Structure formats: structure tokens, C-alpha cells
């Protein structure tokens, strides 16, 4: 795990003023030292400059970057952030094709893979990555981001150079003007909290590659083009019965965790006590005991004194079963406000809820325990049907197939096992199912748009609903089509979480790995029918059955869901004066977007009855702090 930076201009010879350009790259590296505290390097050629900071995870003695290799007369240089988990297998294949290697790193394997397969090398990779390769012979800059956007890749072409970076703050270092807000993106965030839903960012003129995209900047064409090299919709169709689906899930998941345990440093896990993180810890424990003998596995958990938000009962069950070494943290609202500007600086953009602070505390504790790699459960809910709205997808499918008895049973069971605990009445899913089954998706979205537009009790102007991109995002979640719903969850929903995961972990120089986003697993679940995943009101049935012999019974039979949450609604009630003051200051900063009287009036009416998961007030507060931290022109 590392950080990258670079610039490219076919009209400039960087070697003529080499000290000047080295200084620019060093400046970009300095703002990224948290991503790579162990080493740094710079490469300058006539048309491009590349910089890298390294966090040593594999082959601690060699493998510094930028790495330059010659294959025959062809010279290529690479900067690479991430991990190629199957690099050992790829290296053996390349050795058979005549390639030789001087290091034990995945970086050298990646460079050789590019030499052999060109831009098609991405299809051979299982991992997370953001890399840039300068091919001197072809005079192209080849940049790529992994399939689901686990690792970040930003770029800008509105300055004197085309520049790339791992984090936005690096690009702000070399921009000569004050950063400007991307108004449409900003409004979308205020309305919904959505962030990484497109190539645009919160900053005007700064863009990003989306997951599954690569970019080629050609000297000949003197411009760049962005292409989608991977799209889940185009993945190979697979049709298995339920038993075979469970078997294949187990095999791939075990292999995914096995690959992500490859490291030359200490590996730990985030443990919320939920099904996903518990599965990772239990499978990792089984693999470590089998392959390396009994070794210590460290896990970090975010806990709360308030039982409604606390999962220690489940955490302790996993720890007892695996004999893992547990480290518990207890996030506090006052600590969050004290550290808010610091967290935003690492995030580059505002974050949508205080739950991010729970994760921040987990990685902070991991750093104290000298853990350099952490496994986490991001991505499981999105393709295994773990979120509550997936029930509506299942119900709609049964309604359209006229399976009324099965539908009735599933609605009843979902209520008793899950939705009752989430304070959702049994009538709402019935109404949604009828509407979903009877009306086209486009018509239902029109009614939904009308409802949201005329909602009176919001702190922001009603027109923001029409100006934001949230309407378009919501339309992608089609409950009549299970594959479209999963696709939206992966391409839209998980992207925000991965953004926060990357910045929280990298703030403490920790590499975070997400086994549930192994592309083989995502593709399998994408093509697996929803009725295999949800049965008798029980979500993630495939995971439960596939890992039944591994999970503690308390986890296997757990139906409630929390994740890395914070008691945000309770914090509002307990800290009324503090939150009120924060909102007042936020409205002054965001006066071009919000009316203070309207916001405060809304807060007075709602602070005592804020529902779990409603982060409207927080988005306003965080957005204002972001403007202040980065001096953004709004």
C-alpha cells in the first residue's frame, strides 16, 4: 500500500529543469507521507515525472518505487498503490514465458504482466490497485484503477500539466488557484450523502477514475481517453443450484481470505460482531492454524455503553471461539468534534455520517498495536443481500411470479426476524410489493420524485432535490430487477464506503483489505438468485450455510444488523447546545446554500426524534468544516 503522484506534458522537457520538477514532486509526496512512511522515490523523463511513497507490506528489503524495468530495448516505469494478491501465481506463469525477476514484489510482477499482455494485463489481476505505467517506447501513460474502486485515483487536466494523484490534496498542492466547489456534487452530498457516484469530485475540475476504468494518455494523440475495461454486467453467466452455489461461495471465500493474508507484516481484522466481519475472523483463524500453526490474530472492535448500539455480546462470542486477541475502542462525540478537521483533511471531502468515526478509532487502535494490514467486511451486504431493502427485491419477485403463499410467509418471517427490530411496520413492505409488482420502475420513480420534492420538513431548499444527482442514483436501484439492484449497490453504494475505508486506514499507515470484494465472489453472487440468499426471513443464507461449521452459533443465528455505527441520534439529544452552535456556524459558512433560520427551525423540531441512520444535520456540519479546512470557494 502506497501513494502515487505524477504529471505529464508532451510539450515540456522535464529533464531540462530537473531540480524544479523534483521539487514539485517532493511537495506532492510530502502531503502523502501517511500513505507511505517507509520510503519514497522520484522518476523524471523528458515528458513525465512520477513520484511514490511506500508502505512496506511485501518484500521489505527491495521493491522501492518508481520501479524502472527494461525488457529488451523497451523501458517502462511504474508507480503502484495497492496489492496484487495472486502475484505469486502470475509470476510463475511469467517465468514459464521466459521472464526473470530480481525482487519478490507484486510491483515487478505487474510491470512484467504489462510487458507481456499490455493493457489487457488487468484481466489477470486479483487485487486492489491504482497504478500508472510510463511506456517510453509507445510514448503513452497507462493508468488503471481496480475493478470496484478500492484504491483511489484522481487526476486533473486544467493546469499546465496533466497530473495524477492518490489523494486530492496532492493536486491542490500544485493548483495555483483557490479550489472551487463542484456545486452539483455538493448539493447531492447535502441531500443524500452520496459522494463517489461519478468521475467528478466535490472539487470543480478534479476528477477520478471509477472502479473498472483505465486511462491512456498518448503523445501521438496529445490527449487522454478513459475506457471501461471491467463491468460486472458483462461478467460470465453462471447458473448453479442452491447447493452448488453454497459450495462455490465457501471455496472462493476461503481462497479470498487466504490470498489476503499474504504479507510480511502483522495482519489483523476489524470485528464489529456482525456476520461479515465475524466470517472473516473465523475463516482467517482456521486458515492461519492450518497453514502456519497456532498464531495470534488481533482484532479491533468499536463498542458503546448504550446497548442499542453495542455488539460486544457477539464480538466476545467470536473472540471466545477463535481465541483472538481483542482490542476494544469506545468512540465519543466530544473526541469526534475535537478531531473533525483532522479527519476531514485525511478524507479530502466531507463524510456523510459519524459512523466513519467508529472506523477511524478502530484503525487508530490498530496502529497502536503495530498492525500494518487489516481485513474488513466491506462489500458483503451489497451482493449477499444483507441490507433491509433487499427484502423488497425478493417480495417483488415472488409477487410477479404469483407465489402468494411464499410471499406471505417471507413477509411474515422478515418482520419477526429483522424488520420488527428496525421499527418498520409489516404494512409498508406489503404496500411496496404491490406498487413494485403493478407499476413500471420508471412510473414508481416519478411518484417517488414527487413525494420527495414536496416533502416540507427538510433543512435545505426543496429545489435541491431536482438539482442534485440523487434522483438519478435512486433510479438505478430497481427493485424489480435483482441484478440491477446488486449492480447499483456495488457501483454506487459501496464506493462511498471504500472511500472512507481507504482514508481511515491510510491516515494511520495501515493497508485495509476487503475479502468480500474478490471479483470472483462478486460475480458469483451477482448471478445467484435472490431466493438463495434470503429464505424464511433470514438474509445471507448462502454465507450462513457455507460457513456453518466455522461460525459460532450465536453469529450463525444472528438476524439483527448494525455494522460500524455510532449513536448519532443520541449524541444530538445529549449535546443539543454543541450541535446547535455547529449548525449556526455551518449556515454562516454555507450561506449561499442554506438559510440559517430554516435550518435551525428544522433542527428544533427534529433533534429529539432523529431516527437511527438520519445524518442530515451531520452532513451540514461536516460540509462546512470541509470548506474551512480546504479553503474551498463556495
What can be said about this structure in brief?
By secondary structure, the protein is an alpha+beta fold. The mean pLDDT is 91.
Task: Round the mean pLDDT to the nearest integer and report it.
Answer: 91
Uncertain parts: none
β-strand amount:
5-15%
What is the count of helical runs? 26
Q: Please outline the major beta sheet.
A: 6 strands, antiparallel
In terms of quaternary structure, the protein is single chain
Structural class call reads alpha+beta
What's the topology here?
Layout: E1 2-8, H1 18-30, E2 39-44, E3 48-54, E4 67-71, E5 74-84, H2 87-96, H3 106-117, E6 127-135, E7 140-145, E8 154-156, E9 162-165, H4 168-174, H5 183-192, E10 206-208, E11 213-218, E12 223-228, H6 242-260, E13 267-270, H7 275-292, E14 298-302, H8 312-322, E15 325-329, H9 333-347, H10 355-368, E16 373-375, H11 380-384, H12 390-400, H13 404-417, H14 427-438, H15 441-453, H16 464-467, H17 470-476, H18 482-507, E17 511-513, H19 519-526, H20 530-533, H21 541-546, H22 553-556, H23 568-574, H24 576-589, H25 596-606, H26 616-630
Parallel strand pairs: 13-14, 13-16, 14-15, 16-17
Antiparallel strand pairs: 1-3, 1-9, 2-3, 4-5, 5-6, 6-7, 7-11, 8-9, 8-10, 11-12
Helix pairs in contact: 1-4, 2-3, 5-26, 6-19, 7-8, 9-26, 10-18, 12-13, 12-14, 24-25, 24-26
Amino acid at each position: 500500500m502506497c501513494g502515487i503522484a505524477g504529471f505529464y506534458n508532451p510539450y515540456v522537457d522535464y529533464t531540462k529543469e530537473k531540480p524544479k520538477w523534483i521539487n514539485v514532486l517532493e511537495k506532492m509526496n510530502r502531503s502523502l507521507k501517511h500513505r507511505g512512511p517507509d520510503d519514497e522515490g522520484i522518476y523524471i523523463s523528458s515528458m513525465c515525472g512520477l513520484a511514490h511513497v511506500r508502505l512496506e507490506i511485501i518484500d521489505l528489503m527491495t521493491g522501492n518505487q518508481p520501479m524502472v524495468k527494461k525488457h529488451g530495448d523497451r523501458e517502462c516505469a511504474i508507480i503502484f498503490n495497492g496489492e496484487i494478491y495472486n502475484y505469486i501465481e502470475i509470476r510463475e506463469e511469467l517465468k514459464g514465458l521466459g521472464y526473470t525477476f530480481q525482487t519478490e514484489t507484486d510491483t515487478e510482477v505487474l510491470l512484467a504482466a504489462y510487458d507481456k499482455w499490455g493493457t489487457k494485463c488487468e484481466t489477470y489481476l486479483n487485487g486492489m490497485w491504482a497504478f500508472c505505467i510510463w511506456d517510453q517506447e509507445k510514448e503513452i501513460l497507462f493508468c488503471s484503477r481496480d475493478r470496484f474502486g478500492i484504491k483511489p485515483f484522481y487526476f486533473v487536466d486544467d493546469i499546465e500539466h496533466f497530473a495524477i494523484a492518490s489523494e486530492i490534496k496532492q493536486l491542490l498542492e500544485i493548483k495555483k488557484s483557490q479550489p472551487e466547489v463542484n456545486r452539483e456534487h455538493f448539493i447531492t452530498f447535502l441531500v443524500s450523502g452520496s459522494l463517489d457516484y461519478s468521475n467528478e469530485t466535490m472539487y470543480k475540475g478534479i476528477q477520478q477514475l471509477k472502479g473498472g476504468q483505465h486511462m491512456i494518455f498518448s503523445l501521438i494523440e496529445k490527449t487522454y481517453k478513459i475506457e471501461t475495461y471491467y463491468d460486472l454486467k458483462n461478467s460470465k453467466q453462471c447458473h448453479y443450484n442452491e447447493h452448488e452455489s453454497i459450495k462455490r461461495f465457501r471455496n472462493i471465500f476461503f481462497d479470498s481470505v487466504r490470498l489476503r493474508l499474504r504479507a510480511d507484516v502483522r495482519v489483523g481484522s476489524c470485528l464489529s460482531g456482525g456476520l461479515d466481519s465475524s466470517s472473516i475472523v473465523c475463516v482467517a483463524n482456521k486458515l492461519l492454524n492450518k497453514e502456519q500453526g497456532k498464531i495470534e490474530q488481533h482484532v479491533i472492535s468499536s463498542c458503546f455503553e448504550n446497548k442499542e448500539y453495542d455488539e460486544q455480546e457477539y464480538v466476545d462470542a467470536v473472540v471466545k471461539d477463535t481465541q483472538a486477541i481483542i482490542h476494544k475502542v469506545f468512540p465519543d462525540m466530544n473526541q469526534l468534534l475535537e478531531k473533525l478537521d483532522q479527519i476531514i483533511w485525511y478524507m479530502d471531502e466531507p463524510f456523510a455520517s459519524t459512523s466513519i468515526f467508529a472506523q477511524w478509532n478502530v484503525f487508530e487502535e490498530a496502529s497502536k498495536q503495530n498492525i500494518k494490514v487489516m481485513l474488513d467486511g466491506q462489500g458483503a451486504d451489497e451482493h449477499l443481500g444483507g441490507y433491509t431493502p433487499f427484502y423488497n427485491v425478493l417480495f417483488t419477485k415472488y409477487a410477479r411470479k404469483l407465489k402468494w403463499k411464499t410471499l406471505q410467509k417471507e413477509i411474515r418471517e422478515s418482520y419477526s426476524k429483522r424488520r420488527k427490530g428496525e421499527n418498520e411496520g409489516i404494512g409498508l413492505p406489503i404496500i411496496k410489493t404491490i406498487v413494485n409488482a403493478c407499476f413500471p420502475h420508471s412510473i414508481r420513480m416519478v411518484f417517488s420524485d414527487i413525494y420527495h420534492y414536496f416533502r416540507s420538513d427538510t433543512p435545505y431548499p426543496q429545489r435541491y432535490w431536482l438539482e442534485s444527482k440523487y434522483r438519478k442514483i435512486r433510479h438505478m436501484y430497481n427493485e424489480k430487477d435483482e441484478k440491477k439492484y446488486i449492480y447499483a449497490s456495488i457501483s454506487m453504494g459501496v464506493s462511498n464506503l471504500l472511500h472512507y475505508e481507504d482514508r481511515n486506514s491510510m491516515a494511520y499507515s495501515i493497508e485495509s483489505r476487503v475479502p468480500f470484494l474478490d471479483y470472483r465472489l462478486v460475480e458469483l453472487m451477482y448471478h445467484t438468485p435472490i431466493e438463495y440468499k434470503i429464505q424464511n426471513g433470514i438474509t445471507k443464507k448462502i454465507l450462513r450455510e457455507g460457513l456453518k461449521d466455522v461460525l459460532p452459533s450465536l453469529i450463525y443465528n444472528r438476524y439483527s444488523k448494525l455494522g460500524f455505527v455510532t449513536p448519532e441520534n443520541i449524541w444530538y439529544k445529549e449535546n443539543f447546545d454543541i450541535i446547535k452552535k455547529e449548525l449556526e456556524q455551518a449556515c454562516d459558512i454555507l450561506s449561499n446554500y442554506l438559510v440559517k433560520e430554516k435550518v435551525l427551525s428544522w433542527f428544533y423540531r427534529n433533534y429529539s426524534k432523529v431516527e437511527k441512520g438520519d445524518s442530515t444535520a451531520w452532513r451540514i456540519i461536516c460540509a462546512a468544516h470541509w470548506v474551512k479546512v480546504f479553503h474551498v470557494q463556495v
